[in-house]
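Why run this: before we spend reagent on co-expression, it is cheaper to look at a predicted model of the complex and decide which construct boundaries make sense. The entries below are exactly what would go into the expression plan.
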Amino acid sequence: MSKLPLPEAVSSLVERARLGDQNAMGMLSMVKQSADKGDAKAKKTLTLTMSDIEKHPSMRTGTSNFRTAQTGKFYAALRTLKQPDHAVFAGEVTKLAPRMNDVSVVAVLLADGPMFSTARLQAIAKTQGGPKEQKLFAYCVMSISPRAVNYLAKKLPPEKTPIIKLGRSVGLARQLQGIRSRRLPFSAMSPMMGWELGE
Amino acid sequence: MLPLIPIAFVSLGGLAWWKSRKPHGMTPQRKQIYEAALATLKSPEKLRTLANAFEKEGLKDEATMLRKRALLREMPPEQRERRQAIMAKAFKSKDPAKVEKIAKAFEKEGATGAAKNLRNYGKALSKSKAA
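The model came back. Tokens follow.
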């Protein structure tokens, strides 16, 4: 997976921390500690972080609403994502979806878009990097166990988090589309639900 | 006039005896078994056996729920098909209140897993609308 440029990486980190991502908060705290010790790279990152926070102040409006202006922008973009071209769609989804913390919300928005056909999934997988990253994405798409995916997210380095989040969002969206069109059994989303519905 | 003190003693003694005979209700261990049964137990016979055991301990609500789950597998094919169609329609809905209503109906029938998944969808739907 290609690395994000530093200002974008910092912006993403701030966004994640604002949405309550403990890893992001920990990383920002480490940056501050290293900067205090005199680490030049950490100092640069800290300056960029402070500048990003000043440029994009938090738009929280109460305890139940953790949206920011940026978050709203992403959701709006996701909502209108209806590119028929696989590669363009893959690029857009890859850019937008992993930046959001709530994979189920992204999944609901994606499920209203074009169907996640095998060709579309392959196009998205190709944008994720090498074979290992593509396999990770495919695993997260096909997994029906959120626990297994959460475990992976904890065990793998933070650079892989966007792939995991994207895979989970796309996977959930695909399940929703499959259930809505009755192309997938209910057990594709939850084996227990399938059992309860007599599959 | 009746001697009130002996009557009070006898009544209190009777109450204590009756209370000691009453089942102990939900313990943490039973709760764990119940939750595990809801999440994993798929055999109707086993569900009924567990329901009987819970009923013996005075846990009537839990026993009823377990019996309802056992019944889920014994529905005629037409009813299963109808329930699946309702569920597919619920996952298409854009109205979180409707989704919640259907989730409640499924929960009442003992389909706790389906209700949980539907509620998760409803929550995501509400959040996506708010965004």
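The two ends of chain A are 39 Å apart (CA to CA). Residues 145 and 151 of chain A are 10 Å apart (CA to CA). Bring this page to Monday's planning discussion.
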